[in-house]
Amino acid sequence: MTALIPATLIRRYKRFLADVVLPDRRECTVHCPNPGAMTGLAQPGMRVYLAPARNPKAKLPYRWVVSETAKARVGVDTLRANCVMADALAAKTIPGLRDWPEVRAEVAVAENTRLDFCLSRPGDAQRYYLEVKSATLSTVSGVASFPDTVTRRGQKHLETLCSLVQQGHRGGLFFVVQRDDCDIFCLAEAIDPRYAALCRMAMAAGLEVQAWGCAVEPARDVIKLRRPLRWQDA
Question: What are residue 8's DSSP bridge partners?
């Protein structure tokens, strides 16, 4: 494991770009792999942590992986949540998801709609469809929430999961909270009331929902599930 590179944020702009100051005092433009609002995680002057671009031919040499606030280090790479979940599924970390030996990622379930994982058992027609969301927002101490902006894509995923559950499959929504300073999780109803309403409707139909906090360790470039958070509804 390689340590992430510390830097100082100058600004984030155009959603996917950020300017930073590297340890050698050079200014550099890096990729921001997060389309959300990143509330409280993109303040000029804050400490951030970078990783080399995954593609050696990428135009930008680094991607932004972690932001450091006064209270926590927070993973901001939304794609990292799926990697964290894949590791947890392989390690059988999550109660309720240990008895599904076959795991497929990025599964097409309808036209123009994919879900993150499909779990299955040999000889069993029932499937467990699982969607993963990266949650980073915390506006109240100790409380994480999702989403940090209106998410039409997230709404569509909830409608799809609800339909699959009604067809007799099992469905799960898993919030990977990429921070370790929260004990409670809630829906950010004030930000996206439709998402909150759809989530409650899907849960009433049988959708299984969990939220887990993560250990975030820039010195080893490690983000992994740490513990489940208590669900709190408004």
Answer: 21, 47
* pLDDT higher than threshold 70 for residue 1: no
Q: Could you check whether the bond before residue 218 is cis, i.e. omega within 30 degrees of 0? A: no
pLDDT tens-digit map of 94-108: 988 999 999 999 999
Q: Is the pLDDT of residue 76 over 80?
A: yes
All structural domains of the chain with their residue ranges: 5-71, 80-231
Query: Nearest 5 degrees, angle CA 174-CA 14-CA 44?
Result: 85
Tokens of 69: 């606030």
What separation in angstroms does the CA of 149 have from each of 28, 164, 165, 188, 198? 27, 26, 26, 9, 15
CATH classification for the domain delimited by 80-231, as one of 2.40.10.220, 3.50.50.60, 3.40.1350.60, 3.40.50.2000: 3.40.1350.60
pLDDT at 162: 95
Taking the C-alpha atoms of residue 17 and residue 64, their distance in angstroms, rounded to an integer, is: 9
The beta strand positions in the chain, using DSSP E, are: 5-13, 17-21, 27-31, 47-52, 62-68, 73-75, 102-110, 113-120, 128-135, 137-140, 143-146, 170-177, 184-187, 208-217, 222-228, 230-231
Claim: this prediction has a pTM higher than 0.90:
yes
Question: Could you give the CA distance from residue 144 to residue 135 in angstroms, rounded to a whole number?
Answer: 7
**pLDDT (0 to 100) of residue 134:** 98
Average of per-residue pLDDT across 136-148: 97
The band of 79, judged by pLDDT with boundaries at 50, 70 and 90, is very high
CATH code for the domain defined by 5-71? 2.40.50.580
